[in-house]
TrEMBL record:
Protein's organism: Segatella sinensis
InterPro entries attached to this UniProt entry: Papain-like_cys_pep_sf (IPR038765)
Record-linked SUPFAM superfamilies: Cysteine proteinases
Protein name: Transglutaminase domain-containing protein
Length: 255
């Protein structure tokens, strides 16, 4: 899988037009903070990354991974939580990412839901995580409440998805850290990421109820897809916009 990353086309600048937007809603933020009693989970004085880790740990402790049998009718933080308390106790990575996305937003933490894909069109398995913006470090960091981990460099700095990809290609160290107390040596997880860092897609506009048929997104429903040059992806989401420009795709948030 690492060889596929090494053999992939390069990222190159392009003129594809898009603008990532991070919508805010103070009323919904307050509703979520109160519903989940987030003042018992995070403190306003914590650095952004510490807050994010605490919220991801809260999700991981309360909701295991599973491929649910009954799909939730509503896909927002509060309704997903209710689903795990009354229908099925666990769900897969996309629903984990939606729940954590809204918890992070409620604490003022900019983040994206990113789908991470393999190169093989016959491999239907991808992975979905949150990418968290850390203003103190002026960088993105990957956070995975579903498989209960994050990634660091050898100095303990959290890594973004693109940094993880670069390190697999260059053979540099990636240190995986468990969200929960665990003896996990991450052998499987390390190989799993080598497979799923070939190309990426994410919503152009994020916010509460992003995947809940919210009318606020009716005219903001594009997926931005980052691919290596020469690669066109497969099973692309509706309203996809392809780009090979990594600097634009992973740019710092502007609002």
């Amino acid at each position: 899988m690492v060889e596929k990353l090494k053999d992939a086309g390069k990222y190159v600048p392009d003129t594809t037009s898009y603008h990532f937007a991070y919508q805010k809603d103070s009323v919904q933020s307050q509703k979520i903070r109160e519903y989940f009693k987030l003042d018992t989970v995070v403190s306003s004085t914590m650095p952004t990354w510490d807050k994010a880790i605490s919220l991801a740990r809260f999700v991981a402790e309360n909701i295991p991974h599973a491929n649910q049998k009954i799909n939730p009718k509503r896909r927002n933080a509060i309704d997903l939580w209710k689903y795990t308390r009354s229908i099925e106790p666990a769900f897969y990575c996309r629903l984990h990412s939606i729940l954590l996305h809204e918890l992070l937003l409620s604490e003022g933490i900019v983040n994206r839901i990113v789908t991470c894909h393999p190169a093989d069109s016959e491999d239907s398995d991808c992975h979905i995580v949150n990418l968290v913006w850390l203003p103190e470090l002026q960088k993105w960091a990957m956070l995975d409440s579903d498989m209960k981990a994050w990634a660091e460099d050898e100095k303990g700095t959290p890594l973004s998805l693109t940094e993880m990809r670069e390190r697999y290609i260059d053979g540099r160290e990636i240190v995986y850290r468990p969200l929960l107390n665990s003896d996990n040596d991450f052998v499987y997880y390390r190989a799993y990421w080598a497979k799923n860092l070939y190309w990426f897609d994410t919503w152009e506009t994020t916010g509460y109820g992003r995947e809940d048929n919210n009318p606020a997104y009716r005219n903001n429903n594009r997926h931005i897809v980052l691919v290596p040059s020469g690669f066109k992806g497969f099973e692309l989401p509706d309203h996809s916009v392809l780009t090979t420009d990594t600097s634009h795709f992973w740019a710092a948030p502007q609002n």
